[in-house]
């Protein structure tokens, strides 16, 4: 195992998130480093160099795998998809440019308090919407 769920939790909209801790060195992560927040172990693969850090949150059936790095104040949720991404996702621009690599089934994401919804016409793009909706 490369990480564990700590006893530290926070609740947002009825979802309990667990703070994660690295159990070994991998990629840029060192044993003992505290990461971001995940709802359950299936949100973050125990394989590869993928990681969730800072205040980033992953929930629902979203799965971070491969070498994907989610950080900052990113929020990722959606249906599981085993596609691997090789990109470092660290800010709004990176997330919006690379979100489809994380999961085709993600419908919305909140980044730094701004909610983005997937819009699919002939090409998928992301549009900001009112956070209160």
Estimated structural class: mainly beta
Q: What spatial order of strands do you see in the largest sheet?
A: 1-2-3-5-7-9-10-11
What portion of the residues fall into strands of 2 or more residues?
Answer: 35-45%
The count of strands amounts to 11
The percent of residues in helical segments reads: under 10%
Note the topology.
Elements: E1 3-12, E2 15-22, E3 34-38, E4 51-52, E5 57-60, E6 69-70, E7 74-78, E8 88-89, H1 92-102, E9 108-111, E10 114-120, E11 124-129
Parallel strand pairs: 3-5, 4-6, 5-7, 6-8
Antiparallel strand pairs: 1-2, 2-3, 7-9, 9-10, 10-11
Describe this structure in words.
Helix content is 8%, strand content 41%. By secondary structure, the protein is mainly beta. It has one domain. The protein has an 8-stranded mixed sheet with strand order 1-2-3-5-7-9-10-11, covered by helices on one side. A 3-stranded parallel sheet has the order 4-6-8.
Kindly list the characteristics that best describe this protein.
41% strand, mainly beta, three-stranded parallel sheet, globular, 1 helix, 133 residues, single chain
